[in-house]
Specification:
44% of the residues lie in helices and 13% in strands. The protein has a six-stranded parallel beta sheet with strand order 2-1-3-4-5-6, with helices on both faces. Helix 3 packs across helix 7.
Length: 240
């Protein structure tokens, strides 16, 4: 059976962040679906709840699993949710997981720092969008620069999302994951805070650190990230 890919975006952005990956997967004949979580992208008007987010992922995974083994791919918030989902006490039909830019427990100092940072941006004129665009222009290649903003920025959902993420029990979930697992981090990613802990929790996982790259690894180094997908898909095919 042909592997299927489900992609889950990060906070503030939407399914459009995966355009480079979707193009690569289509080029190689791999069926893929990038979801929009509630409060983001095409669902911007919906309130974000953690239950609705998991329901969105579960529906996409179970639909894809009817056609083949599922490679689940998540970035940042999407990576945290995908780890929690895959590590459920009753495992869902996920054949392998790529968790990018998410090796930090969303609580304590790490969460407080991120919430303070997001709050400071939100208080800037135009809610910090001008600065966001300047940072993207300085760090993201032209061909992927517009992908994060193309579906709109979910600024109003940020606070609720961050509060919701603190309810996750990632340590327990990651410890339960038995399928092939890759942690992918940029060298300068601020969410590498608990990288060593995540490796201890999932000793079978492979850690890939992309040099000269920050949090937005999928857009900064799309060819490298697509190579990770190629590897993961090869493993899924071998095991199916």
């Amino acid at each position: 059976m042909t592997p299927q890919v489900v992609l889950v975006h990060g906070i503030r952005t939407s399914a459009t962040m995966w355009r480079a990956q979707l193009a690569w997967l289509k080029q190689h004949g791999i069926p893929a679906h990038a979801v929009d979580l509630p409060g983001h992208g095409t669902r911007m008007a919906e309130p974000f709840t953690i239950e609705a987010a998991f329901r969105t992922i579960d529906e996409a995974v179970r639909d894809a699993a009817e056609r083949g083994p599922v490679l689940l791919v998540g970035h940042s918030m999407g990576g945290l949710l995908s780890l929690e989902y895959t590590g459920a006490e009753e495992p869902p039909p996920v054949a392998a997981l790529v968790a990018a830019s998410c090796t930090a427990l969303p609580r304590g100092a790490a969460l407080s720092t991120y919430r303070a940072f997001a709050g400071a941006f939100d208080r800037l004129p135009d809610r910090g969008l001008w600065l966001t665009e300047r940072v993207l222009a300085a760090t993201i290649p032209l061909e992927t620069r517009g992908d994060f903003a193309a579906g709109g920025y979910a600024l109003d959902a940020q606070s609720v999302v961050l509060r919701s993420l603190s309810s996750l029990d990632l340590a327990a979930a990651v410890r339960r994951i038995r399928v092939p697992l890759w942690f992918v981090n940029g060298q300068f990613d601020q969410l590498r805070a608990h990288e060593s802990l995540f490796r201890r929790l999932a000793p079978h996982a492979e850690l890939i650190v992309v040099p000269r790259t920050s949090h937005l690894v999928t857009a900064m180094r799309p060819k490298v990230f697509n190579a990770v997908l190629r590897l993961a898909l090869a493993v899924v095919r071998q095991r199916s």
